[in-house]
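Weekly sync notes, structure subgroup
Attendees: PM, AL, DS (notes)

Item 1: joint prediction request from the bench team. They want all two components modeled as one assembly rather than separately. Inputs as received:
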Amino acid sequence: MNLSDNEILELSELCSALVDGRLTDAQRSRLTQWLAASEPARQYYVRAMGLSASLCSYASEMQVEAPDAAPADKIIRVGFGSWLGWLAAAACLAFMLYVPFHRPAPEPVTANLQPEEHVARLTGARDCRWSHPAPSTQPGSYLRKGEMLDLAAGLAEITFDSGAQVVLEGPASLCLNSAWDATLLRGALKANVPTEAMGFRVSNASVQVVDLGTVFTMVADGSGAADVLVLKGMVETSSHDSTGQRTIVLHENQSRHFAQSGISKVSDPAQKFAWVAQPVSLEHFAPSTRYVHWSFDEAGGDVLKADAFGAPLSAFDARLEAISDAVIATVRTDGRWHRALRFNGHHYAKAAFPGLSGNSPHTVSFWVKVPEDVQLSSAYAMVAWTAKGEKLGSHPVHIGWNRNPTEGTVGVLRTDYGGGFAVGATPLRDGRWHHIAVVFVPGEDPDAPVEVKQYVDGHFEGEGKPSPPGTEVSEKFREPGASTIGDTLWLGCRVGNNGPRRDRFRGEMDELCIADHALSPGQIVALMKDNRPAPTALAARNQ
Amino acid sequence: MAHDSQHETERRKQLVALMTQHQRRIFSYIYALVPDRHDAEDLLQETSVVICEKFDDFRPGTDFVAWACQIAYWRIRYARQKFARSKVIYQQELVDALAQTAAEMREELDERHEALAHCLQKLAQRDRELVLTRYEPGSGVPEAAQRSGRSLEAAYKALARIRKLLFDCVSHQLAGQGLT
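Output from the run, pasted for the record:
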């Protein structure tokens, strides 16, 4: 017999109270008796509990926390959040032999296997032989969160999105948990962690090593024990063995052996230091990259000249718009490198940029200075263009600062794009120069979302995440015939379907650069520090 | 030796793939029998350990979820004492009845899960944010209430209303497809 409408209402309330932990004793009694007696009630109940289980799943998928001030303590969580530990452990099955699953245990691994969520790239190799060759083990490939690398022999260099670089020496197994952490199951690795990636960590069953800006080596013997040797700087190690948890800091030239039985000295440390200090030659995979650059160093006029870091590229010259001759004379100011362009909240600039609206990877970088007293109305947009690829739809891409407090801290870097947005962590409204880089990686899977990665002052912060589906803004731009202003770069204004909107950016911009590839963290830092691209690393170099 | 190692690695990959694919289904099954999220999560972890230990017993090509749910069922029986002080205690007879119903409804629950994604899109943004915040790992009704600017009581009521809306939306969607 089916449930009546009133019974459905009552059962719905009971299930809701149950899920929220608000069931009274009387309600509990009523529910259990009902479920015991009625198959339709049990069916309704199973559906209701299934709904909540599904909501757990969807909510977890949408929750992404990026490392910020204390990256070592932050965990990028996707999938089923706190109860995902078992899955991650399953992904690194050998690890399960040594670490219990209950939640209070150390959480060196909290990632899910996300087919298109990339956290690193395979950037170098020498004599690599993979246990299971796959597309992701091809030179230059992107590597997924949760992916386990089984290197049978040779050397492989992995560059994490955080900027940390790891050279793995086979035979070795490494699980990529996030852009900020990995688990070494067996074998040896050497981690070179620049300042921008401080907080990167590597763990195994016995120890978690949190980098404090250094070069260190970990050698895991496959039984859960590991040697940690610090070549430069210092690391914080947290051991979790039979005697409990201990945290010690290892400085340059110090080493320790970590095992389930406890901490001890490394055997033959001098020999091991000598071994890991040997330079290693790798072949690096760096595609030829084209750059278009605007220095904003002109003495005057309304033309903003483009170049390729040397040779002029006049086809990409930008022009100031909505500006009088009198104001043109005032828009150049002291920049981060020579001169910069000032946006006063009224004028903007645009340049033809063939291919910009398409579906190819690229990186946009520039310096920006946002006044402390800037209003919310001046958040749109430092850089913008309309997209017309299948993935980005015709939704404009806007790089600006966040003005929506429900989606992140107001004033931090924000990138909006078709189907998603990324929000950073560093406040930009402080009247100081900040280096911005935003990497767009459409990916090859037509069903996977575009990946957007933000870097502020060289720090990786703010991966893109999907917009809640069905929001007004993401639906609006899917109208047929939307956007006819593609392949145009807009500076200092918000872009709509028919061109610039009234919203403008107020602040200063310098050294805008667009590369036709997804630049690596190291390449971004090179642009920031040297104001020129890093030397192409086609030739082997010493590691 | 090398062959054994390769076989072991292959089995490990199979296990990871199966776990990845079916984790939600196993959790959904456990949650119906132990309707406390944290308890259900603990049981899922315990179940996963047993699954890994016994994975050699699993025959490829057979129903992994059914096999995993059987393991979960026995973990729940085994752990009943652990949940003795839990807010909701189901007698073993009721657990058995719910387990049977849940097992029979697995395909429907999959359909409902898919349909729920569409129904979430139809929710007003404020409601969607409330319900997803409520279900975020480590979050709860108080956090969702605070973030949405609602009182705690208003949040409880809103969540009950939203769940009913979603439940009905999913049912209607499946009915439209002739799936119920």
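Discussion: The helical segments of chain B are 2-33, 37-53, 64-78, 92-104, 106-122, 125-135, 141-148, 152-176.
Action: AL to compare against the crosslinking data before next sync.
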